[in-house]
Specification:
- The protein folds into 2 domains: about 220 residues, Hypothetical protein, domain 2 (Endonuclease III, domain 1, Orthogonal Bundle); about 130 residues, Alpha-Beta Complex (Nucleoside Triphosphate Pyrophosphohydrolase).
- The chain contains 14 helices and 9 strands.
- The structure holds iron/sulfur cluster.
- The site of iron/sulfur cluster has 15 residues, from helix 9 and helix 12.
Length: about 375
């Protein structure tokens, strides 16, 4: 029954969406291209990040690495530097790893089918669908948060979108709705509708090109859908960060690969120190963990850093010493041992996460 309804809906939906998109799409730098490399980079950057934030990063990234070969040949450290501030750094590491794979094993050429694309390291079903449809015209769907919202409203699906079974159902529906021709434009159009018209709160149904097809609108359910059970509260972590300054230089340590902030540089941070710390205790930690003797130490106002599933509470100390010593012992961070150290005039000299830059700003 659902299959029949979807078949009827498909033609009308794709026709309306595609004509609306041709007139109303936002002019974004990754549009008007079928280059799989550019589409891939934009899709990875857009994961968990707003379009307005991505635009300047994308333009700068593409300027530095105009091809998959150039990206593969770049040092990871440089790629992470260009990514600095965009967050979720594992995306940059995965992008770089996959570029190397494509150049090593595929002579720099992207495969054209979803199945082959999904066999590449770090490319999932959504990204494979976007590349296969937009770059190669394959009739395969995409399903991101925007598409989920549009589909659940169009079809008035009351199921919990946080449940894996609903996700499977929505992929099946998306599969049936994607047209055999112009699938790439259709996919971009449905995502654009979710991003600009069918908004999470207060959708603009009055100017929606598919209003006449929308069951949620007909039943006044648009503000009640999609249904999503509340996510668990983010886990709280406390840690101690010490900023050590010597002769105008700051000590940065390099994190090990993998996990949060993989291979990024940061001020020495101790995740095992969770209780409030005195100046004496902080100086003692610097001495015992790093082998450094500081002349003075003062507290900096604490910082909170919010990630999707975790909240980090940082207590911060700013210590000074006369000269940077030539060596030091590398302490453990929250996932193994720090890999390297550097004394830098500006934190921007190394790829750092947002929290390191925020702490640096607090010192002024
Ligand atoms: S009519 Fe409203 S709820 Fe339905 S798809 Fe359009 S914007 Fe979304």
């Amino acid at each position: 029954m659902r299959g029949k309804k979807l078949a009827l809906l498909q033609k009308s939906l794709s026709h309306r969406l595609i004509s609306w998109f041709s007139a109303h799409q936002r002019p974004l730098p990754w549009r008007q291209t079928t280059d799989p490399y550019l589409i891939w980079v934009s899709e990875i950057m857009l994961q968990q990040t707003q379009v307005a934030t991505v635009v300047p990063y994308f333009s700068r990234f593409i300027l530095h690495y105009p091809s998959v070969h150039r990206l593969a040949a770049a040092p990871l450290e440089e790629v992470l530097s260009l990514w600095a501030g965009l967050g979720y750094y594992s995306r940059a590491t995965r992008l770089h790893r996959c570029a190397k794979f494509i150049c090593t094993y595929r002579n720099g050429r992207f495969p054209s089918t979803r199945t082959e694309l999904m066999a590449l390291p770090g490319i999932g079903r959504y990204t494979a669908g976007a590349i296969a449809s937009i770059a190669f015209g394959q009739s395969v769907p995409v399903l991101d948060g925007n598409v989920i919202r549009v589909l659940t409203r169009l079809l008035a699906i009351p199921d919990d979108i946080a449940a894996p079974v609903t996700h499977t159902l929505l992929w099946a529906i998306a599969d049936q709705l994607v047209p055999s021709a112009h699938a790439g434009t259709y996919n971009q159009a449905i995502m654009e509708l979710g991003a600009t018209v069918c908004l999470p709160r207060h959708p603009h149904c009055g100017r929606c090109p598919v209003q006449g097809l929308c069951l949620a609108h007909r039943r006044s359910l648009q503000n009640a859908l999609p249904v999503k059970t509340a996510a668990p509260r983010p886990r709280k972590s406390h840690c101690l960060t010490v900023v050590i300054e010597a002769a105008g230089k700051f000590l940065l340590l390099k994190r090990p690969p993998g996990g949060l902030w993989s291979s990024l540089w940061e001020f020495p941070t101790f995740h095992t120190i969770t209780e409030p710390t005195t100046a004496n205790r902080a100086a003692h930690i610097i001495r015992s963990a790093l082998g450094l003797y500081v002349n003075s130490i003062r507290p900096i106002s604490p910082l909170r850093h919010q990630l999707t599933h975790r909240t980090f509470e940082y207590q911060i100390w700013h210590a000074r010493m006369d000269m940077p010593p030539p060596g030091l012992s590398l302490p453990d961070c929250d996932r193994g041992q720090y890999q390297d150290f550097a004394w830098v005039h500006a934190v921007a000299e190394r790829p750092c996460g947002a929290i390191t830059r925020k702490i640096r700003e607090r010192l002024c």
